Amino acid sequence: MPEHSLLSELNDRSREVFRRVVEAYLDTGEPVGSRTLTRDMSERVSAATIRNVMQDLEHLGLLNSPHISAGRLPTQIGLRLFVDALMEAGPVTETDRSAIDETVGHDTSDTGLLLDRIGGALSALTHGASLVLTPKQEAPIRHIEFVSLAADRALVVLVFADGRVENRVFTPPLGQTPSSMREAGNFLNAIGEGRTLTDLRASITKEITASRQQLDGLAAELVSTGLALWEGDGSDSRLIVRGRANLLDHEVEDLERIRVLFDDLERKRDIARFLELAEDGEGVRIFIGSENKLFSLSGSSLVVSPYMNADRKIVGAVGVIGPTRLNYGRIVPIVDYTAQLVGRVLSGRKG
C-alpha cells in the first residue's frame, strides 16, 4: 500500500500509538507493550484499547510482534512511514554543531585529512559508522598517447600537468590500426592540453555530436571508449569508513550482517556509485533495511547527504550507517549540517 494511503488509514489515536511505539523502539531497541503506552498517551485509554489499535497497525503492516506475548516493533514499512511522514527533525543542536565545527577549525589545506577528521567526528557523535566519499582530484592533462600492443590490446598513456604519469591497458574497438590510434592521440593533444579528463570527455562528445571533429568513425569510437574506461577505472575518489566498532555496540541479532557490510564496503571497486544514493536531490536521503541495495544487506540503515563544490556540482558525500533503530531525528540534521559545512569549506579554497 502506498505511503499516503497508509497514512490516511490512521486516525489521531492510531497515529499517536504508532508514533510512540516507533519512538520507544528507536530509544530502547525493545518491543513496546500496551501497558507502557498507557502512561504516555495524551488521552486516558485502557491497555485493551491500545492492544486493539496495535493489532490494526499490525494488520496494515506497520508493526509486528516477535513473539506472541511480546510487545510490538515497527516493520521496515513502518519505519519508512515514520521517517517520511511523522518524524520531527529539528535543527542540529549547539553541542553537535560545535563538535563538527571543531574538526575544521584546524588546518584545512589537506582535503584528505580534513575529511578523515569529519568521518571521525560523525562516528563519535552518532555512535554509528561514518562514511565519507572524498572528491575526485583531477589534474589537467599535458599529453595523451595511444599505443597498439596487439589486435585486441592497447595502452593509453596520460601525462598530467602535476607530473603524474598513468598507464592503462585496455581492449580497443575492433578494426583499430596504429595509424588511427596516432590520429586519435593527435586530436586529443590538440584540444586537451590544460583540460581535465572530465572536461576533455565533454569536449569530445560535443565535437562528435556537431560532426566537427577530424577523426574517422573508428578513431572517434576509440577516443570515446578509451576515455570512458579511464573515467571509470582511474577515479581518485576514496571512501573513508570510521567507527565500525560502534556497530558492534548495538544489540544486533546477527553480527554476521555487520561483517558482510564491511566486506562489501572494502571490496567495492567502483565506490563512486556511493554518490548515486544522493544524486536525486540536494538534501539528506535515508535508506532503511533492504532499501539499501548498494551494500546488499538488510537490517541496517544509511543516512547520506551529498556535498557540492563552488559550481554547485556534487563532488562527494557524507553519511552514517547503523542498525535500523538509528535516532533519525538527531542524525538527519547532523548529516545535513556536516555536508553543508564540507561544501562551504571546499568551495572557499582555491584550486
SSE layout:
Elements lengths: L2 H6 L3 H17 L5 H5 L8 H13 L3 E2 L8 E2 L1 H11 L7 H10 L7 H16 L2 E6 L6 E10 L2 E8 L4 E6 L7 H15 L4 H14 L6 H17 L4 E5 L1 H6 L5 H13 L17 E4 L11 E9 L5 E10 L4 H20 L4
Antiparallel strand pairs: 1-2, 3-7, 3-10, 4-5, 5-6, 8-9, 9-10
Helix pairs in contact: 2-4, 6-7, 6-13, 7-13, 8-10, 9-10
What does this structure look like?
The protein has 3 domains: 3-86, Arc Repressor Mutant, subunit A, CATH 1.10.10; 94-136 and 237-347, Beta-Lactamase; 141-233, Enolase-like, domain 1 (2-Layer Sandwich), CATH 3.30.390.10. α2 (12-28) packs across α4 (47-59) and α8 crosses α10. It has 13 helices and 10 strands. The chain is elongated, with a radius of gyration of 26 Å. It has a 5-stranded antiparallel β-sheet with strand order 7-3-10-9-8. The chain has a 3-stranded antiparallel β-sheet with strand order 4-5-6. It is of the alpha+beta class. Mean pLDDT is 79; it is low at 228-235. Helix content is 46%, strand content 18%. β9 and β10 form a beta hairpin. It has helices spanning 3-8, 12-28, 34-38, 47-59, 76-86, 94-103, 111-126, 178-192, 197-210, 217-233, 244-249, 255-267, 328-347, and strands at 63-64, 73-74, 129-134, 141-150, 153-160, 165-170, 238-242, 285-288, 300-308, 314-323.
